[in-house]
Design goal:
The protein is an all-alpha fold and 273 residues long. It is 79% helix and 0% strand. α2 runs antiparallel to α4.
Length: 273
């Protein structure tokens, strides 16, 4: 699954980079999303595979902190990139005549830079607060990676500030982008319903169908893990469910975009030929 994820997302990046017809805002964000997905899975899966191969489940304190930092960084980047892509589709469908003016290269670069900066600051803040915690005994994490919430609750020192910052940043940096995506698609659906011809409706919906599928998969699996299993004190079930958004979702993204997108299919054919 890791090899499929890595190869699939790498092919998407190469196809977009080598085909000049795909040098548009939508594919600019898609290539960055594929890069983020490669890095996202690379923070957890290689270590997990090593544990399986070597039959050891140890991780050093330094490696655990590093893993948490990059995990928070790239999951945050995924979140912001999906929001930027939703805004891109909103402008394309609801304001098509102003699309090239609004989604100019400078603005797209600014959206990407903002996504990176906010993700870096969020990850850095949470990890710096973890560094202030003390652990009395050799802690055991009931997960296949250093899951941020579980590491905090293994500490012997007071974790009130960590919990407070974690919930505030998750609410702001997770809730606001999610609401932005919902608002964008409410406007998109409203605009599509106003189109008289069935062909026009299908064409408009097909431009955002792939993105909507990825958004549903990403938020559906992540929220499903932390909401449905929050009431169930079953760490094994939580770890298994976490595989869905840490491994399965990044693996399925290239298939969703390539199978439903004629431009990507054509670019991949050019790349292989």
């Amino acid at each position: 699954m890791y090899l499929v994820t890595f190869t699939g997302n790498l092919l998407i990046i190469l196809a977009i980079a080598t085909d000049s017809h795909l040098h548009t805002p939508m594919y600019f964000f898609l290539s960055n999303l594929s890069f983020a997905d490669i890095c996202f899975t690379s923070t957890t899966v290689p270590k997990m595979l090593m544990n399986i191969k070597m039959q050891t489940k140890r991780i050093t304190y330094e490696h655990c902190i590093t893993q948490m930092y990059f995990f928070l960084l790239f999951i945050g980047l995924d979140n912001f990139l999906l929001t930027a892509m939703a805004y891109d589709r909103f402008v394309a469908i609801c304001h098509p005549l102003h699309y090239t003016v609004i989604m100019n290269p400078r603005f797209c670069g600014l959206l990407l830079l903002t996504s990176w900066v906010l993700s870096l600051l969020d990850s850095l803040l949470n990890v710096l607060l973890v560094l202030q915690l003390s652990f009395c005994t050799e802690p055991e994490i009931s997960h296949f990676f250093c899951e941020f919430n579980q590491v905090i609750h293994l500490a012997c020192s007071d974790t009130f500030l960590n919990d407070l910052v974690m919930y505030i940043t998750a609410g702001i940096l997770g809730g606001i982008p999610f609401c932005g995506i919902l608002f964008s698609y409410m406007k998109i659906v409203s605009s599509i319903l106003k189109i008289s011809s069935a062909g026009g409706k299908y064409k408009a919906f097909s431009t955002c169908g792939s993105h909507l599928s990825v958004v549903s998969l990403f938020y559906g699996t992540a929220l499903g893990v932390y909401l449905s299993l929050a009431a169930i004190d079953n760490t094994r079930a939580t770890a298994i469910a976490s595989v869905m958004y840490t491994v399965a979702t990044p693996m399925l993204n290239p298939f969703i975009y390539s199978l439903r997108n004629k431009d990507i299919k054509q670019a991949l054919r050019k790349l292989f030929s």
